[in-house]
Amino acid sequence: MGIVEAILLTVITAATPLVLAAIGELVTERSGVLNLGVEGMMIMGAALAFAATQVTGSPYIGILAGIVCGALFSLLFGFLTLTLVANQVATGLALTILGLGISGQIGEPYVGMSGIKLQPIVIPVLADIPFIGPLLFRQDLIFYISIALIIGVHWFLFHSRAGLKLRAIGDSHGSAHALGIHVIRTRYLAVMFGGACAGLAGAQLSLVYTPQWVENMSAGRGWIALALVVFASWRPGRVLAGGYLFGAVSISQLHAQALGIGIPSQFLSALPYAATIVVLILISHNRRVTLINTPASLGKPFVPDR
Amino acid sequence: MTANEMSRSDALLSVRKLTKLFGSFAACDGIDLEIRPGEIHALLGENGAGKSTLVKMLFGVLAPTSGQILWKGEPVRIASPGAARRTGIGMVFQHFSLFEALTVAENIALSLDPRISLAKIAEEAAVLSRNYGLPLDPKAHVADLSVGERQRIEIVRTLLQNPELIILDEPTSVLTPQEADRLFETLAKLKAEGRSVLYISHRLEEVQRICDRATVLRHGKVTGACDPRAETPASLARMMVGSEVANVTAAGTNAKGGVLLEARNLNVAARTPFATALKNICLTVRSGEVLAIAGVAGNGQSELFDALSGEYPVADADAVRISGKNVGTLGITARRLMGAGFVPEERHGHAAVPGLPLSDNLVLARSKSDRKVFLAGGILGIIRYVAVRLATKRISAAMDVRKSGDDPPAGSLSGGNLQKFIVGRELDRQPNVLIVNQPTWGVDAGAASRIRQALVDLAKSGSAVLVISQDLDEIFEVATEIAVINEGQLSPAYPAQGMTREKIGLLMGGFHGKAEEREAAHAH
């Protein structure tokens, strides 16, 4: 395995949780709900996935635990913001803080334990293609899911009637309601999809990226995922591209250190955010692009029978 | 042969004794209406005449209190818009419910059977829009389209459901004349296919041009069913606004003073797609005068108020003059400092902050213009609560504001009482110019007469008062001069004494400056 391959492999591993959490949040935001609790849902997923794997010995049960945990945790957010119409920003922040706290509690007994790494699934024939094979076809299940989700979400949003309804709700929930679309029900499902994806992203952290439990191991990746959704202007393909770009940037600090390049690591870890700000300026510069891609009712509470 | 002698069974839709009560208020009171296959039927009336309530019942948005709707001679119950569509009734609303971020085809797809593929919908929409002369690109995003094009989407969306009756609510109010002409061609085509159209409008010219029959509503009742082509604009207007003349209490004073408020060639471009542009508005209000501006809502009233009050200053300083000084470019506070007072239309959130007590609302409005009275401590601007409370009390007593407690939140007052307070807040300053938009909109009769009396008294004391109103009774009660606003243009002001409802109706229907000659022609 050459150095380039090795670096690219680490980029893929670093990018996968970002892509997963971002594609989930993208669906949530396309429905008009801003869930800032990605970081909290992610760390909860990581803790539960690790614990379940340790208890059962199977990382696949761990993955499932991470997904279910993320979805259930997001259900709390959904209940507060959709049923009780609480402020979405405040609730999302609370979810992150709560998640960081509870996950620390859950993970306490597992600190310092060596985990069980999720093993790659080798896809016959394709895995033997030089260069591409080891990179893309000797990967773990979560990587395959992340790619499938990008394609699936793109198809869902832009080629299915259910996805059209979801986008309609995100654009104008009042008009959607008038057409008889179930706004609240759809938003619950979208929020839970986002939670499940964030939970899966967390499972990737504690089962693949670094197979062990460390408190706060999500280390701000939930926030990067949130930035990524805006960066991608709410389009799945761009989430994939942006996720790998952000993954490459965040991993580059390690490689830079290894190669002895003296760029301060703080600067590199700030790069994704700087990139997001630049993209935001570029996007908002063009009103038309903003209007067409940004869910217009993002973050606005919907109260029927007004 | 008249419409009423035609056999009833010929009608596509008949409405018998349809009534809708809101509490004890009858928005529609025993309406009879008959629409035949293949006709364009006009529904004429002023704002609040009951047009919208009637069509909402026909489209299943509102449930009638009593009465019957017959579809092809059979009684039907239309419980929802979905049921209306299944029956064969389609409706194009005045304000569109489109999704800006979605494409034309996607917007149409959302209201159709989910089993039809998007590609097929796009194809059908393209064919249909071409056939009816409503060119549309199914792949275009709504955000990129003009208001006229957006309306086409609504029409195409309605036509795809193959309705036999299409209801259009004030369709030309958002269109340019060219777009309107195109729409009329489409309507002619629909008629040729045997479809019926219920065309809601207050524009007499259009109705005479395209409609076969008309039903006129006033105060929730049918005041006429006729062939608009056989009528004159004057006779239509009379049915629309009523012929009886209200008791005009002479508000005019003998001694008319100098010009206190003036607008010269005031032009304002439309700020939003739904706003009206003001075109060459000229008006003068002298000391002792009450100029009332009549007109159907949405013809530029709020835009005119915004420009005169300085909420949205205009580019030309001399377009608006207060007490002989150019103020066009000045903001609202500067104009207040020159002795002008303003009462906007919306009470909650515009004229008053609903959550704050009356005293705070008083300070917010007058802290600049009456700084010395209400604020202490120079630049510190400390509120003198004693003075403010006293003023609140004084205003409440002067205007008979009924409230719970001394200083309740503005939002807790009833509409009429809050309006009395807001008008009183301005009157308390003895403004030399007062501009009021819809002073008694949604206000009970007692409060309304109190407010009107106060406006008349202010003018008698030598101020210039401008009242923008849709209520003709109110206009005749307070005005010394009357002008009419229509599509952003203001008619010349006529003395209230010589003014008739008929003439106002003509001016509201867009017969600018032609009122006299039409009337004269009709007399012969």
TrEMBL record, chain A:
Q: What InterPro entries is this protein classified in?
A: ABC_transp_permease (IPR001851)
Cellular component annotations (GO), alphabetically ordered:
plasma membrane
Membrane topology recorded in Swiss-Prot or TrEMBL: Multi-pass membrane protein
> Where is this chain primarily localised?
membrane
Q: Which domain of life is it from?
A: Bacteria
Q: Where in the cell is it found?
A: Cell membrane
Q: Which UniProt keywords apply?
A: Cell membrane, Membrane, Transmembrane, Transmembrane helix
Membrane-spanning segments: 31-53, 60-82, 88-106, 141-158, 188-210, 258-283
Q: Name the Gene Ontology molecular function terms of this record.
A: transmembrane transporter activity
Pfam annotation, one family: BPD_transp_2
**What is this protein's name?**
ABC transporter permease
Source species of the chain: Metarhizobium album
